[in-house]
Design a protein that fits this description.
- By secondary structure, this protein is α/β, with parallel strands linked by helices.
- It has one domain: 5'-nuclease (Rossmann fold, 3-Layer(aba) Sandwich).
- The protein is built from 6 helices and 5 strands; from the N terminus they run E-H-H-E-H-H-E-H-H-E-E.
- A 5-stranded parallel sheet has the order 3-2-1-4-5.
- The two termini are 19 Å apart.
- The relative contact order is 0.22.
Length: 125
């Protein structure tokens, strides 16, 4: 199983949160991935002053690759796909992450209460 990490989990990795990393290690995954959509969301919220990602934005992609997380670009096929069934969230980034999972046959590792019951989600405590 290939697992896409939601933005919350990416932020935990950046902040070196060992508890969540421990939970991730229990998931039997062939690969962990992070979408460019999560990096985009982090960049937007950082520039708006709503978020401190624990490291400079320019270092995030390199850090993720160094710890073995593969980066996944946003493609047109991801943007035009609608996640089925629709998630209850109105967050466009969450919707895009679920659409990416559907198109690419991934599961979404998440702590987001509005997403954990989605059939493509893997809940992280």
């Amino acid at each position: 199983m290939r697992v896409l990490l939601d933005t919350h989990l990416v932020l935990d990795l950046l902040a070196d949160q060992p508890l969540r990393a421990q939970h991730l290690s229990r998931i039997e995954a062939d690969a962990f991935l992070v979408s460019a959509a999560s990096l985009w969301e982090i960049a937007i919220k950082t520039r708006l002053g709503k978020l401190d990602p624990a490291m400079p934005l320019v270092d995030i992609a390199r850090f993720l690759e160094r710890i073995g997380v593969r980066l996944l670009p946003i493609e047109a096929r991801h943007v035009v796909a609608a996640a089925d069934p629709e998630p209850e969230t109105r967050d466009p980034f969450d919707r895009l992450l679920l659409a990416i999972c559907q198109v690419d046959g991934l599961r979404l590792a998440t702590i987001d209460r509005s997403l954990v019951k989605h059939p493509l989600a893997v809940q992280i405590p």
